[in-house]
UniProtKB/TrEMBL annotation:
GO molecular function terms listed in the Swiss-Prot or TrEMBL record: lyase activity; peptidase activity; single-stranded DNA binding
Family: Belongs to the SOS response-associated peptidase family.
Name of the molecule in the record: Abasic site processing protein HMCES
Keywords: Covalent protein-DNA linkage, DNA damage, DNA-binding, Hydrolase, Lyase, Protease, Signal
Length: 231
């Protein structure tokens, strides 16, 4: 079974900027990564984002030397794809960490340092119940007491400032890889991503035997600065 078939990414772009803000120790203040839409791919918030749709992705901008957020197709587009990439049927939205170094598709972006962080409020997994029935379970990063990432008002009530950064619900940071697909019909490369998956931790193994590789905030900073030499 493919894990995380749906993710909850229902916030507007400015809220993702605030919630993924980072501390700049040089200037002694918190900063927000800019959310940059493209002409060919735009992020549309949804409570049920599925593979092939655009998801908000945090990457390191080597030119500006800062993190930015870009919309990317969820599901890495193979570079050998011919014709319209939208007509393809890919199962590339998840990448097993055990095989990433040997993968024909994922080893190249891994070697090139194209690591990224898929931003979401959480993801859905299906737990088998009696017979063939399955129950959807909403999973997310540990929150401060009283915070519920599925509660829209908690995000609306959250506050951001240069002195404190984001104070509110926490995003769930999914480790991933990305690539740029050169399309003849589009004016710029199409960015696409995949979520790295691993064996489930004891906390969620009763729901499913696989889970996304979820990053904590300090690890997100390391990923932004491309200090993660190996997985």
């Amino acid at each position: 079974m493919i894990i995380g078939v749906l993710v909850l990414s229902a916030l507007c772009a400015p809220k993702y900027e605030e919630a993924s803000s980072y501390y700049d120790d040089v200037n002694d203040e918190y900063k927000k990564p800019s959310f940059i839409n493209s002409d060919t791919l735009k992020f549309i918030p949804s409570t049920n984002l599925s593979p092939s749709e655009a998801v908000p992705v945090l990457v390191w901008d080597a030119v500006q030397k800062c993190p930015i957020i870009k919309p990317m197709v969820w599901g890495m587009i193979p570079p050998w794809t011919s014709g319209d990439y939208k007509s393809g049927s890919y199962t590339t939205h998840n990448c097993r960490i055990e095989n990433v170094k040997e993968s024909r598709l994922y080893s190249a972006p891994l070697t090139a340092g194209k690591r990224c962080v898929i931003l979401c409020e959480g993801y859905y997994e299906w737990k088998s119940t009696v017979g063939k029935h399955k129950q959807p379970c909403f999973l997310y990063k540990a929150q401060s007491p009283g915070m519920k990432p599925e509660n829209e008002s908690h995000w609306s009530d959250g506050k951001w400032s240069k002195s404190q950064g984001w104070v509110g619900p926490s995003l769930t940071y999914l480790a991933g890889l990305y690539s740029a697909f050169e399309s003849k019909k589009d004016s710029e490369p199409i960015l696409s991503s995949t979520v790295i998956t691993m064996r489930s931790s004891p906390a969620v193994s009763h729901i499913h035997h696989r889970m996304p590789a979820i990053l904590s905030s300090p690890e997100v900073v390391k990923c932004r600065e491309k200090k993660m030499a190996t997985l």
